[in-house]
Design brief:
The protein is of the alpha/beta class. It has a nine-stranded mixed β-sheet with strand order 7-8-9-10-11-12-13-15-16. A four-stranded antiparallel β-sheet has the order 17-18-20-19, with no helix packed on it. The protein has a two-stranded antiparallel ribbon with strand order 1-2. Helix 1 (19-33) runs antiparallel to helix 6 (103-113), helix 9 (157-163) packs across helix 10 (167-173) and helix 18 (378-391) crosses helix 20.
């Protein structure tokens, strides 16, 4: 049986990967997940139908051995510090014959190169460098060893594999030495940035009830990044729109808009009140969207799933499952989006419902809103994430700020940016890589990653100004040709600066100040 010998270029570690095991894992992955929805429209089209592995080899112009050898050798050189030309700073690319391989597929290779589950306790800089395949500069080694000696460092093997492909995962899930070298003053995702960090307010059950009322008042996002000309249609991302299913008369115009913008692949169905009151409208949209091959994901938002699970009867569950269209020729996967904001909201019935949905391929996602006095303590956020994992809910985003409920609830008690770092620290230390959400800010121009491509440049008592590195006027005009910055939005180095309410950064200003602009009150 052929075996590939691979030596990681930075750590020098050598591994041996059996051809048969690698081939079986990749073929199984492509058969199950080789779709446009999961791997992207371009790569999904390249794979086509039938023997997807053979189609991939044909497109790359390689036989099995040459293809595996080339991918393995490129992965042996990658880590989250690898030089690349990607604007979004997501991580290194692996290409074969000019074809960029999806990172989700590359994880199949890394699972064979770096097998195993569980956690690794890191004791030294040398061990850390070997695990992450990086070279730690001599001038940083002493500081990094101080971090390791000071804080308990446990890294899951799942995160270690992901970190070689994603800078975002590496910054949030490992010890990224670029930030850790600042341990004498402040550090990213490792403990409180300052002894002055604010203490989370004590939880009051009555306050949770008021928050739930605010959440259920209107379950739509109510914010479009560009005009659509249709009141019931919000363009929330280049590839995603949200539809108010209660506006049935606007369906023809909405379908026409989606069809005219082929980059739109995800559709979110929502309503101001309970989505189950509009189930017939959901079904009508689901049937109509099947005629648009570009739409591969259909998401139904039901925040009431958290509060009224009894409403999801067997009949309702069967009707939702029927919307999950998994025909290989044109799949439209159904997802249910909900929002648990406190651990006390989880009940046994939720687990039973989710098991039934998962058995039919319907995934349930949780978007958490960070709320002052409700869930802004590390222990409470850990309980929420653990509960999600235990009953089969996928963690998606932890919204730091920007949702309507946050703009109202956090107005008088804004969340400190330092608190977000403390939460991320706690989850990274105590949870597995699959129980860590993305830290997101919702803005006028859509979602952005907190402190990665959304940087604080000015601080006020109840809000901050953030520069969005992921947004440019050119990119917005690709979506809407007549786009211009809205009134009140300034441009800084080609990127917009927007207000984000309910978030502030009175502590550790130098850290959150973006380094290029003074942070002001």
């Amino acid at each position: 049986m052929k075996t590939y010998s691979v030596q990681f270029s930075h750590s020098g570690t050598e591994v041996h990967v059996p051809h048969g095991a690698l081939r079986a894992a990749l073929v199984n992955f492509l058969e199950r997940w080789g779709t446009r929805f999961y791997l992207g429209p371009d790569f999904g089209t390249l794979l086509g139908h039938g023997d997807r592995f053979a189609n991939l080899l044909r497109a790359c112009g390689r036989d099995e051995a040459a293809f595996f050898e080339e991918v393995l050798q490129q992965l042996a050189r990658t880590n989250h510090l690898t030089h690349h030309q990607m604007d979004d700073q997501e991580g290194p690319e692996v290409c074969v014959s000019g074809i960029v391989l999806p990172k989700r597929m590359l994880l199949v290779f890394l699972e064979q190169m770096l097998p195993g589950d569980g956690f690794v306790a890191v004791r030294s800089v040398e061990q850390y460098a070997e695990l992450t395949n990086i070279v730690v500069p001599e001038e940083q080694r002493e500081d990094l060893q101080q971090v390791i000696d000071t804080y308990p460092v446990r890294l899951s093997r799942h995160v270690l594999r992901q970190s070689r492909l994603s800078r975002h995962v590496a910054y949030q899930g490992t010890l990224d030495s670029r930030f850790m070298a600042q341990i004498g003053d402040e550090s990213l995702f490792f403990g409180s940035l300052s002894q002055d960090a604010p203490r989370a307010r004590d939880f009051d059950p009555q306050e949770l009830g008021r928050v739930q009322q605010l959440i259920c008042r209107d379950q739509r996002i109510r914010q479009s990044i560009v005009p659509t000309g249709i009141k019931a249609l919000q363009r929330v991302h280049r590839t995603q729109v949200e539809v108010d299913v209660s506006a049935n008369r606007e369906m023809p115009a909405i379908l026409e808009y989606i069809q005219a913008n082929p980059e739109i692949s995800d559709v979110v169905l929502a309503a101001e009140d309970r989505i189950l009151n509009h189930l017939s409208g959901v079904q009508a949209y689901a049937r109509a969207l099947r005629s648009l091959s570009q739409v591969t994901a259909l998401r139904v938002r039901s925040l009431m799933f958290a509060y009224e699970p009894e409403a999801f009867t067997s009949e309702v569950i069967e009707e939702l499952i029927a919307l999950n269209h998994l025909d290989p020729a044109g799949p439209t996967r159904l997802e249910l989006e909900t929002q648990f904001v406190h651990s006390s909201e989880f009940r046994l019935v939720h687990g039973e419902l989710i098991r039934r949905l998962l058995a039919k391929g319907v995934t349930v996602y949780n978007n958490i809103a960070l709320l002052s006095g409700i869930n802004d303590s590390p222990e409470e956020m850990k309980r929420i994430c653990s509960n999600c994992r235990q009953i089969g809910i996928e963690l998606q985003n932890l919204y730091v700020a920007g949702l309507p409920v946050q703009e109202e609830w956090n107005r008088n008690n804004p969340v400190e940016a330092t608190t977000v770092i403390d939460l991320a620290t706690h989850l990274r230390r105590h949870e597995s890589g699959r129980e860590v959400p993305l830290y997101v800010v919702r803005t006028t121009f859509g979602d952005a990653d907190f402190n990665l491509n959304a940087r604080i440049v000015a601080v006020h008592d109840d809000h901050v100004l953030m520069r969005l590195l992921c947004v440019t006027k050119k990119a917005m005009r690709d979506i809407f040709s007549d786009f211009d910055w809205p009134e009140g939005v300034e441009e800084q180095n080609g990127h917009p600066v927007v207000p984000v309410r309910g978030l502030t950064a009175h502590t550790n200003r130098d850290f959150f100040g973006d380094g290029s602009k003074q942070v002001d009150s």
